[in-house]
């Protein structure tokens, strides 16, 4: 049986033989939805790289259980770190992009309010949308059995994205008219890789110029044009394979 993964508030006391409590919404899901029972395997993670592997030792009420730890694992931050700057898609395609990029292995996701985005995050609506992206990353992190969940950063403007690109070790903008394929781009063995995925309407000439000034070159992904909600996942898979993180 594959052990389900739950997000714990803290794993500060995680050690072999220790009993850790899982409570609150995660405990309720484990007890009342998954109906875990004593003896069943379970994994607790803090989402920051630590995982406690063990079995249910006791079920207490409808929203709390104790896990007896058999093993503690620590996952170091991978290198190179891969960040995807994702232009805001329409509808729920943003959550789809976050979900699949998380499952693939992206380390950070940056919502970007590009000029040609139909969707704009403003005020309470923007905060709610950002919360959905972060919740999606957490759930996808658990589903894909990651111990280190991706960081979903605050939404950035084009100027802020340009600064992020300038600070990276390799910066690229996915663009159908890119002269070079991403599959042959010179990638660093360590450090940071930042990839920009534009909106359905494409990256504007002004944005391309700003990113070029920051050191980001345009690259094409393949012979077909992908939706903004799937391009980041496809590109991330390519980068993970080329950098040896998938191997």
Structure description:
- The protein is α/β, with parallel strands linked by helices and 247 residues long.
- The chain folds into 2 domains: 5-74, Hypothetical PUA domain-like, domain 1 (Ribosomal Protein L25, Chain P, Beta Barrel), CATH 2.40.240; 81-243, SPOUT methyltransferase, trefoil knot domain (Alpha/beta knot, 3-Layer(aba) Sandwich).
- It is 31% helix and 26% strand.
- The chain has 6 helices and 12 strands.
- It has helices spanning 24-33, 93-104, 123-143, 158-166, 205-213, 228-242; strands spanning 5-7, 19-23, 41-45, 50-59, 64-74, 81-87, 108-112, 151-152, 170-174, 180-181, 192-197, 217-220.
- The strands form 2 sheets. Strands 8-7-6-11-9-12-10 form a 7-stranded parallel beta sheet, with helices on both faces. Strands 1-3-4-5-2 form a 5-stranded mixed beta sheet.
- Helix 2 (93-104) links the parallel strand 6 (81-87) and strand 7 (108-112).
- Helix 2 (93-104) runs parallel beside helix 6 and helix 4 runs parallel beside helix 5 (205-213).
- The radius of gyration is 20 Å and the shape is elongated.
- It starts with a strand and ends in a 5-residue tail after the last helix.
Task: Count up the helices.
Answer: 6
Low-confidence blocks of residues? none
Distance between the termini: 25 Å
Instruction: Kindly state the percentage of residues in helix.
Output: 25-40%
Strand-residue fraction? 25-35%
What do we call the CATH topology of the largest domain?
Alpha/beta knot
What's the arrangement of strands in the largest beta sheet?
8-7-6-11-9-12-10
CATH superfamily of the largest domain: SPOUT methyltransferase, trefoil knot domain
Radius of gyration: 20 Å
Largest β sheet strand count, sense and barrel closure: 7 strands, parallel
Please state the average pLDDT score: 95
Topology pattern, helix = H, strand = E: EEHEEEEHEHEHEEEHEH
CATH architecture of the largest domain: 3-Layer(aba) Sandwich
Structural class: alpha/beta
Number of domains: 2
CATH class of the largest domain: Alpha Beta
Tertiary shape: elongated
Instruction: Report the count of strand segments.
Output: 12
